[in-house]
Amino acid sequence: MMILQTLISGILLGGIYALISMGLNMILGVVRIINFAHGEFLMIAMYLSYIFYAWGGMDPYVSAIFIVIILFVLGLITQKGLIEPILDKPASTKIFATLGLSIVLQNLALMIFDANYLSVTTPYQSSVVNLLGIAISVPRLVSFGVVIAIVILLYLFLQKTMVGRAIRAVSMQRQAAYLVGVNVKRIYLLAFGIGTALVGLAGSMLMPIYSVYPTLGASFVLIAFVVVVLGGMGNMFGAFYGGLMIGVIESLAGVIFSPGLKEVIYFIIFILVLLIKPTGIFSKGKGSEAVGL
Amino acid sequence: MLKIEQINLSYGEIQVLWDMSLQIPEGQIVALLGANSAGKSSTINAISGIEKISSGRITFQGKDISKMAPHEIVELGVIQVPEGRKLFNFMTIEENLLLGAYSKHARKDIKKNIRRVYDMFPILEERKDQLAGDMSGGQQQMCAIGRGLMSNPKLLIIDELSLGLAPILVQELLRTLTTIKDEGITIMLVEQNVKQSLAISNYAYVLENGRVAIQGDAAQLTEDPHLKKAYLGM
Question: CATH number of the domain at A2-119+127-289, please?
Answer without folding.
Answer: 1.10.3470
